[in-house]
Write a sequence for this structure.
DNA sequence: ATAAGGCCCTGACCGC
DNA sequence: TGCGGTCAGGGCCTTA
């Protein structure tokens, strides 16, 4: 599940691999993967372009090309970008191939086909709905308080809403709420200012930890897992305190971690450290 | 305006 | 071993 730390790792590791590389040929095997423009226009426009800048906004990768166009990539659930050698044979999960002039290939693989690409002049059009970047000075406890004010939806659901803060997904939402000692079902607007401050600090700390460990790989098969551009896994799954630790002891108090469903999403928390309702 | 539910997809997993 | 059914879930869209 690529979230902000995984996407940040992708961007950092793609830069040394792709900076200056030129696209020699392009092929789109699953048309829906390319949101815009039409696949034939996409391939025509990207051939001959050189990768020049490497950025990120929320969970979107922003790969800038030498003519000012930006290749925007969202991996969604199971998407991967892989820099593969010349002789690599694309499998059935490979939906876009960019052949580079040095013979290497940039492969977009995605077993569930949820991932998307855009080739656009102005990437802000793609990411215009996103809330503040978690590490930006504009993301303050006060801003978070304002965005949660009056909201009755569970705080877990609001953390997954990219308009509140960009880049948090299911893993880092659960880990943030645990570190902030907040029950996932608490109404967003019910958080006290002290609780919002804890949550704000927890979000930034968890995301930084995730980046420091090169993201989270969840195990399971290679095609469903988060795999870095060179093929390595991340390491943050070793640091999970609640996510996918159902019935295992809470690292703080030893109480078995509980899994529930909040906002149609699997949700993990410690019932002792993250009690329902507003603690006295 | 917000909240909730459906949709896209298919590998993994479960029960028989 | 094989088969059908269910689950997972980010972002967007529709509905209330």
């Amino acid at each position: 599940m690529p979230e902000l730390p995984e996407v940040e790792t992708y961007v950092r590791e793609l830069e040394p691999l792709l900076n200056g590389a030129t696209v020699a040929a392009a092929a789109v095997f699953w048309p829906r993967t390319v949101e815009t423009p039409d696949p034939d226009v996409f391939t025509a426009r990207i051939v001959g372009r050189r990768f020049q800048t490497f950025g990120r906004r929320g969970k979107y990768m922003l790969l800038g090309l030498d003519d000012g166009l930006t290749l925007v990539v969202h991996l969604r659930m199971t998407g991967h970008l892989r820099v593969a050698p010349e002789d690599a044979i694309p499998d059935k999960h490979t939906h876009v191939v960019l052949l580079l002039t040095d013979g290497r290939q940039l492969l977009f693989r995605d077993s569930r086909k949820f991932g998307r690409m855009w080739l656009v002049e102005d990437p802000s059009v793609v990411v215009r709905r996103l809330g503040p970047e978690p590490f930006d000075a504009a993301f303050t406890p006060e801003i978070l308080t304002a965005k949660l004010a009056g909201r009755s939806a569970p705080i877990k659901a609001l953390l997954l809403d990219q308009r509140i803060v960009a880049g948090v997904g299911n893993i880092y939402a659960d880990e943030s709420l645990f570190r902030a000692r907040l029950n996932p079902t608490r109404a967003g607007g019910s958080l006290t200012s002290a609780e919002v401050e804890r949550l704000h600090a927890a979000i930034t700390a968890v995301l930084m930890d995730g980046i420091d460990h090169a993201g989270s790989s969840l195990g399971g098969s290679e095609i469903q897992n988060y795999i870095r551009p060179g093929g390595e896994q991340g390491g943050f799954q070793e640091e999970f305190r609640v996510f996918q630790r159902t019935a295992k002891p809470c690292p703080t108090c030893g109480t078995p971690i509980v899994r529930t469903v909040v906002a149609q999403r699997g949700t993990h928390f410690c019932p002792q450290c993250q009690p329902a309702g507003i603690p006295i």
